[in-house]
Amino acid sequence: MATHAAHGEERRRIEFDKHLPVDHRLNRVYRFGAGLMGLVLIAFGILGLIDKVGFFDTRGDQVVGLNTNGALSVLSICVGLLLFVGMVIGGNFASTLNMVVGIAFILSGFLNLGLLETEYNFLAFRIQNVLFSFVFGVVLMFFGMYGRVGSALPHDNPYWRARHPDMVEAEPREAGRRDAAAGDRSLPPPGDAR
Question: Which residue ranges does UniProt annotate as crossing the membrane (predicted)?
């Protein structure tokens, strides 16, 4: 029984990969989201490194309204490059990466909120950084979840099709019956000479 369920799960995953072509609209959303957000992080990190702030300087320095230090700048560049990798690979990987990194940003916001004004604030966070972390995380999660999570996904959506293979197989049969019924209604009844 467990082997059958595992086989069904593998079959769905393989079918999903086939149903999300490179030029699919959802793939473009995931790639665009990863690339745009990665670019924001890389630009922030580079601007922070240009100021030559100390690596773990807890006072930090202001860059585009956010506090930063060397560690936060390098971390921002690394995460930005990771998002660029997601943009290049695309598909399910980019979607999942966007969601995971988005959740990590939200958790980072909560963690650093607790570390504000303490000696353990190694990334030199201030309240504006915490708010940015929350907003950035939510936007990135939106890019990752777009068209993947929801109760009203259209039936041509590859995620819906992967979750409902039995309904996908039934749809062409039902469409054929509807077309046949519509064709029967358009024909005049036998013996009716119009």
Answer: 29-50, 70-89, 96-115, 127-146
- Distance, CA of 45 to CA of 81 (rounded, Å): 11
H-run or E-run covering 18: helix 2-18
pLDDT at 59: 72
Residue 16's pLDDT band (cuts 50, 70, 90): very low
**Residue of 93, 107, 100, 112 whose CA lies nearest to 20:** 93
Q: Which of 65, 99, 101 is nearest to 81 (CA)?
A: 101
Q: What is the largest CA-CA distance in the chain?
A: 94
Domain ranges in the chain are 20-149, 152-184
DSSP string for residues in 135-171: HHHHHHHHHHHTTTS-S---TT-HHHHHH-HHHHHHH
87 or 18, higher pLDDT? 87
Q: Which residues of 44-79 are buried (b: 16+ CB within 10 A; e: fewer)?
A: bbebbbeeebeeeebebbebeebbbbbbbbebbbeb
CB atoms within 10 A of CB 6: 10
- DSSP letter, residue 90: -
From first CA to last CA, the distance across the chain in angstroms is 61
- The identity of residue 137, as a single letter, is G
> Hey, which residues does 86 pair with through a beta bridge?
none
Compute the distance between CA of residue 79 and CA of residue 16 in angstroms, rounded to an integer.
27
How far apart (Å, rounded) are the C-alpha atoms in residues 188 and 80? 66
